[in-house]
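Sample 3 of the quickstart, ligand zinc ion:
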Amino acid sequence: MRFVPPVAVLVALAACGSTTPPEVTPDAGATGDASAGGDASSSSGERTLASCETQIATDAPEIFRAYFRCVTIETTADAIVISSRALPPHKSNYWGQGSPNYAPFDTSRGAEYRANPNTLEERAFKLTIPKTPTSRGLTVTAALIDGQVGSSQLEYPLGVAGVALDSVAIFNPLARPGDDIEAEKFTFDDYNAHPAPEGTYHYHTASKGPLEVLVAGGLAAQASPGGGDVELFGVMCDGTFVLGCTELDGSAPGGAALDAQGGHVHDLTNKTGTVLVADRYHVHVCPSGGGRKFTPEIQYYSACSR
Ligand SMILES: [Zn+2]
Ligand SMILES: [Zn+2]
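Result:
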C-alpha cells in the first residue's frame, strides 16, 4: 500500500569501520556477520553491543546514525525506517537458561519481584518514522493520562510503539486489559524490561540498556538512569523522542513546562550545541527524579506506521 522509494546505500558499520564516524564504532572485534542467523559474536555466542548487527544509512540524520545500535536503519524521501530483531544486547533471565545471555532474575529487590512466565523470542519489527511529523494539535492533559487501555483514540497502539537505542521494543504504559502496569513492573528484569506472552521483549520505562549505547558511543559517561548524564532512551513510532532526566546536552529539562506525560516541544541540542532535531515534541521519563515514571500514553503526532 505505502510507496517506498529506493533506500539509501547502507553501510555495514561493524564490517566497514573506516567509512563510519568514530562515535559509532568504538568496539573492535565485531565480525559484521549479520546473515548467519546466529549473532556475530564472541566465542561465547553472547549478544552484546559489540557483537550485534548494526546497519545504518549514511544519510540518516545524526540522531539515528550516531545514537542507535543493533538495528537496520534506511531512509526514504520523507521517513526513517528502523528494523529490529527485538533481541536485547544484554543479559536477562528472559533469554532462558542455556542462552549465553542468561542471567538469573534478581530477587534482591524485594519479595514482590517475580519473573513472568514468558521467554523472549525473536520478534522482528519495523517502524516507519516521519522525518517531519504532523502535530495533532493536542494539549496532553491529566485527564488524557488515565492509564486505561482504549479510553482514548489518541493512545499509542498496544504492542510495539517505539524502538530504543539498543533495538529493544518500546511499549506504551498501558497494560493489557486485566493487568496494571504498576503491578507488572515487578516482573521487570535488571534492565526494566520483560517479554510479552508472544515473546516480544520491551521497555515501559527508563532503562540502563539504551544508556549503555550512549556510553559505548562516547555520548554519555555513565548508564545509570537518573545519574545526571545525557539520557536518551529511544523514539516512538510517531516521531516523539523519549528522553530521561536530562536534555540531549545533559542539562535539566528546559523550555516550556512539561505536560501530563512529561512532554514538551523544543529543539534537541547536543553537548556541542548542534541542533539534532528542531522543534520536536519529546517526553522526559524520570522516575528516579520524581518525574514521569513510564513511556508516553498519548500519541502527539498523527502517524504511527509499523
Ligand atoms: Zn510489558
Ligand atoms: Zn525537553
